[in-house]
Specification:
single chain; mainly alpha
Length: 52
Amino acid sequence: MIKMLALLVIVGGLLLGMLFVVGLLLSSLKMRKWAKPVGLLLFNLLKSRRRW
């Protein structure tokens, strides 16, 4: 059970990370005004998650 939960968490985290990267690429290509604040937000989220 615990191993399955750990696998789910890891896979979910990887998928979220990929979505973040794709979103950043799209936003930087389409709307450069929004790319920086979104990038900073995601960076802060990742930092806070590492502290946990």
